[in-house]
Amino acid sequence: MACFSWLTSAFLIVYAMSVLMATASLTTKTDNPYHPTGGEGSLTPQECPKACDYRCSATSHKKPCLFFCNMCCNKCLCVPSGTYGNKEECPCYNNWKTREGTPKCP
């Protein structure tokens, strides 16, 4: 009887640890609004608003920044990491230009 109790306890501990590890990996994945090392296609359209909110968080021109960032993200499925620069992470985002030849994406 004591062996059965010990075996049951060991199984429950292993099971609880596996559940905690699975939960931790899911939490880490969803907390990150973008994938800094990812390129085009590293985001889904549903992740664009959160990534753009962060990208535009340091600008004083939030409304146009969010508009163009979301437009670029929906096309490229990528937003560069940080609040400025790092556009080489997303070539589509980096290379999309206005008619005047200036960068379209913030």
List the helices and strands and how they pair.
Elements: H1 2-31, H2 48-55, H3 62-76, H4 91-95
Helix pairs in contact: 2-3
Keywords for this structure?
106 residues; mainly alpha; 55% helix
Verbal overview:
The chain is mainly alpha-helical and 106 residues long. It contains four helices and no strands. Helix 2 crosses helix 3. It is elongated. About 10% of the residues have low confidence.
The count of DSSP E runs of length 2 or more, i.e. the number of strands, is 0
Cα-to-Cα separation, first versus last residue: 67 Å
Structural class: mainly alpha
Pattern of helices and strands: HHHH
What is the global morphology? elongated
Proportion of helical residues: 40-55%
How much of the polypeptide forms β-strand, as a percent range?
under 5%
Gyration radius over CA: 21 Å
Regions with little confidence, pLDDT below 50 for 5+ residues: 25-35
Distinct helical segment count: 4
Query: What composes the largest sheet?
Result: none
> What is the residue-averaged pLDDT?
79
